[in-house]
Design brief:
The chain has 17 helices and 13 strands. Helix 1 crosses helix 17 and helix 11 packs across helix 15. The protein is elongated. It is an alpha/beta fold.
Length: 405
């Protein structure tokens, strides 16, 4: 069984969990072809990502003439498939407020993907995220290409749900993966029929736990915190300099390292200057996976004061290393983090954030270690990538069997 994994951008610093998923499926014997619309726009710093890029086939990057050729070839050689796909394509375009040019590109990508899948012998396509990758996978299927499935993460995907054509994407899919109970509830509400809702399954993102050893108990004088992720408004890092400033007098040695980069960097830098915490708050930029693990292991806890998330993989990583987490009560986060392994606050509540940070900094190292071990046990139970792979493997085999019959 040959599977195509379809993504908008791959590989990248924020989608290591997809690479883990692919590797775990390959460990079960599946033959997987990585396909992406385009390359990650920034620099890749992890050697494994650089290797993944060499294995990935791209539909758009450097291939504009090829897309036009594929579209013309599809019109000439597959007029029935093109005619069958046009009503769905028009519905996608209309629901997305008439973004015609973009959706013409989706149809061209679908033509190229159908032809590529036929050449490579791909029998099923799995797309990550319910947005344009799922749209291209659906159009590919309607053109006469392989069956497809997709994983929805949220919450951005659900903000303007009608524009995302969930009903059609779920109806045409063989199955749909949600990464949390929160996500499944959203998808169930968006499915067109009870039968389509029955296609939705939970398969939580997973880690290769062999790479995550529980770190030794933190030293009593360790005042280090870490925040990992793209610097963006949704993740709320802009509030951290002020929060650190309020704790500096009580905890003179406090340090916060931010790993990642993004559009909020300049705003965070302004906040660092405003609150005079240049010594306490340090921006490190993107880091390799090994560097991220070391930074987490060297800290008291992970901070992630987000406004919008699905269920961040870095939370799983921190708990797997045995470090508790301070985050927010949104989406799927409370399904993993509670008072036994961390602290949850309302996003944007600066007083609650400062109070929780005070708890983090004043907690006894033994208590932090107990919380970390609770978190590790929860990750082993819910987020081992082998569990995810077995569930996906089962669903893909069922898809193949049903197609054969």
């Amino acid at each position: 069984m040959k599977i195509g994994y379809l993504l908008n951008t791959y590989p990248g610093p924020s989608n290591t969990f997809i690479r883990d998923e692919i590797e775990a499926l390959e460990d079960l014997g599946l033959d997987i072809t990585r396909i992406a619309v385009r390359r990650f726009g920034g620099a890749l710093v992890d050697p494994v990502d650089l290797r993944e890029r060499e294995q990935t086939k791209y539909l758009l990057d450097g291939n504009i003439p090829g897309l036009f050729f594929s579209a013309i070839k599809e019109l000439v050689s597959n007029p029935v498939g093109v005619a069958r796909s046009l009503p769905a394509w028009w519905s996608l375009t209309r629901r997305a407020s008439g973004r015609t040019t973009r959706h013409i590109a989706y149809l061209m990508q679908a033509a190229a993907l159908r032809q590529k899948a036929k050449t490579l012998g791909i029998t099923h396509i799995h797309a990550h995220f319910s947005t344009n990758a799922a749209a291209v996978a659906m159009l590919t299927k309607l053109l006469g290409g392989p069956s497809y499935s997709f994983t929805a993460h949220g919450p951005d995907e659900f903000v303007q749900a009608p524009r995302n054509s969930f009903e059609a994407k779920i109806a045409n899919a063989k199955f749909v993966i949600s990464i949390s109970e929160y996500c499944r509830a959203k998808l169930t509400d968006l499915a067109g029929t009870a039968g389509d809702a029955g296609k939705i399954h939970i398969a939580r993102c997973g880690l290769d736990l062999r790479k995550f050893e529980v770190a030794p108990q933190v030293a009593p004088d360790n005042m280090t915190l870490v925040c990992v992720g793209r610097l963006c408004p949704q993740k709320g890092q802009v509030h951290l300099p002020q929060a650190i400033a309020t704790l500096r007098r009580r905890f003179p040695g406090i340090r916060l390292f931010l790993l990642g980069d993004g559009e909020s960097r300049s705003e965070i830098e302004k906040e660092i200057l405003l609150h005079d915490v240049g010594r306490e708050v340090v921006l490190l930029g993107w880091a390799t996976n090994d560097q991220v693990r070391r930074r987490i292991a060297d800290s008291r806890a992970l901070l992630l004061p987000s406004y919008a998330e699905g269920l961040p993989v870095v939370i799983m990583e921190s708990l797997a290393i045995g470090r508790p987490v301070l985050s927010t009560v949104i989406a799927g986060i409370p399904e993993l983090v509670d008072s036994t392994c961390g602290w949850l606050v309302t996003p944007g509540d600066s007083d609650a954030l400062a109070a929780a940070l005070t708890d983090v900094m004043s907690s006894d190292p033994a208590e932090l270690a107990r919380m970390g071990l609770k978190g590790r046990a929860r990750v082993e139970q819910l987020h081992d990538r082998r569990l995810l792979a077995r569930r996906l493997h089962q669903l893909m085999l069922q898809t193949l069997e049903n197609t054969a019959h």
